[in-house]
């Protein structure tokens, strides 16, 4: 059973609403600050993710993300500008391929000769399992035929 509110029930309700509004405002402000920081981190993450897929043209064995050469810094700046302009990762990679050729990619695209590299492992695994199964079956059939006489 509920007891009726005594004296000032309306005032307490209004104060509760004010507290809730203040908390909601504080949460909204905190969310806006965190969203702004997350957006900046996301752009940096995108820049370094794309830069990690490109080899530095002047450094031996380093990606654009790892290198500290002037060209690598310039490439990271171009990546950032293009991301801010709304370009996708593939568009940016195609831009750098047009500038430096396919050798700028840290990982070869699947196609042509590279398909042999990508497909060889699963094919070898399947063939190895098939050979092992055939060997086991033949060995089992051979040993059971010797036990029969």
Automatic annotation (TrEMBL):
One of its GO terms (molecular function) is metal ion binding. GO terms for cellular component: plasma membrane. One of its GO terms (biological process) is cytochrome complex assembly. The keyword Iron applies. Keywords: Cytochrome c-type biogenesis, Heme, Iron, Membrane, Metal-binding, Signal, Transmembrane, Transmembrane helix. Residues 41-146 form the CcmH/CycL/Ccl2/NrfF N-terminal domain. The chain crosses the membrane at residues 115-136. InterPro entries: C-type_cytochrome_biogenesis, CcmH/CycL/Ccl2/NrfF_N, CcmH/CycL/NrfF/Ccl2_sf. Residues 1-40 form the signal peptide. Pfam families: CcmH. Belongs to the CcmH/CycL/Ccl2/NrfF family. Possible subunit of a heme lyase. This is Cytochrome c-type biogenesis protein.
């Amino acid at each position: 059973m509920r007891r009726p509110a005594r004296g000032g029930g309306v005032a307490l309700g209004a104060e509760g609403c004010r507290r809730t509004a203040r908390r909601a405002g504080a949460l909204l402000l905190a969310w806006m600050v965190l969203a702004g920081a997350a957006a900046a981190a996301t752009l940096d993450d995108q820049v370094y993710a794309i830069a990690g897929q490109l080899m530095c043209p002047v450094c031996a064995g380093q990606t654009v993300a790892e290198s500290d050469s002037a060209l690598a810094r310039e490439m990271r700046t171009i990546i950032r500008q293009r991301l801010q302009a709304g370009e996708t990762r593939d568009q940016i990679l195609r831009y750098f391929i047009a500038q430096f050729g396919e050798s700028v990619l840290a990982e070869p695209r699947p196609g042509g000769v590279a398909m042999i590299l990508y497909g060889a492992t699963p094919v070898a695994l399947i063939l190895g399992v098939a050979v092992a199964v055939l060997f086991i079956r033949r060995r089992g059939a051979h040993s059971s035929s010797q036990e029969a006489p």
